[in-house]
Specification:
229 residues, alpha/beta, 3-stranded mixed sheet, two-stranded parallel ribbon, 9 helices
Length: 229
């Protein structure tokens, strides 16, 4: 799966459902997608935030898209998050992890930052999985779509591949099965939780989930809530 900055709960349900998770950083960047954007809750309404990038283009790979070296932008985002969630029950535990993630030392591309956001969130939750970086682990970029994913499974000695339900539009179980891989589709679930006293807004960034729910509740109730078929 492409790395996204602090993605929604469904992304982490996919991580939860796997043993080996491949961060697909050497595929094309998606303009106006979720790689460098997501949504948080501000005054009871969703607000889109964007991580600024240099010359982002769908003609570049995700790991080729550089971040703007703009610490002020990150500080502004952190200030917005602090204003929005300072009274949330788990703010004091979560906010230091966000500060650590969004400081720009040691990262130069949106892939770097997105991957850091995913792995730091998993570390915070105690969710231990094997992460692989496609650009560093595999030399099969010439293969397209399903064939490359199947090849990665073969390289890893894995015979079961899990994709989000949206993959039904481009992948078939029969095609995978003919090549020795069982394909399963995961449909995310978004169980309601209190967001102060506001009407529930679903599918926000994992930041929102972390602010309002304990690690134990996320691990025991929210992450296993998906459907697999």
């Amino acid at each position: 799966m492409q790395p996204y900055v602090f993605p929604y709960i469904g992304y982490f349900q996919l991580v939860y459902a796997t043993d080996v998770y491949v961060l697909y950083d050497d595929v094309n960047f998606i303009n106006r997608g979720w790689i460098n954007r997501n949504r948080i809750l501000v005054n009871g309404k969703e607000m889109l935030f964007t991580i600024p990038c240099k010359d982002a283009s769908q003609n570049k790979l995700i790991n080729e898209v550089e971040l703007h070296d703009d610490p002020k932008a990150m500080q502004k985002l952190l200030a917005t998050i602090k204003m929005a969630y300072a009274k949330a029950p788990h703010f004091s535990a979560v906010f230091p992890m966000l500060e650590d993630t969004l400081q720009l030392q040691g990262v130069t591309t949106i892939a770097d930052l997105a991957i850091r956001s995913i792995t730091n969130t998993c570390s915070y939750l105690g969710l231990q999985r094997t992460f692989k970086l496609s650009s560093a682990e595999y030399t099969n970029q010439q293969l397209k779509k399903a064939d490359r994913l199947i090849d990665i499974c073969h390289i890893e000695g894995i015979n079961e591949y899990v994709n989000l339900a949206g993959g039904k539009e481009i992948y078939t179980k029969e095609y995978y099965a003919e090549r020795g891989v069982e394909l399963e589709f995961l449909t995310p679930a978004c169980k309601e939780y209190p967001q102060f006293k506001n009407p529930f807004v679903p599918w926000l960034s994992i930041i929102d989930v972390l602010m309002f729910n304990s690690k134990e509740y996320i691990n025991n109730e929210l992450l296993p809530g998906y459907n697999l078929e």
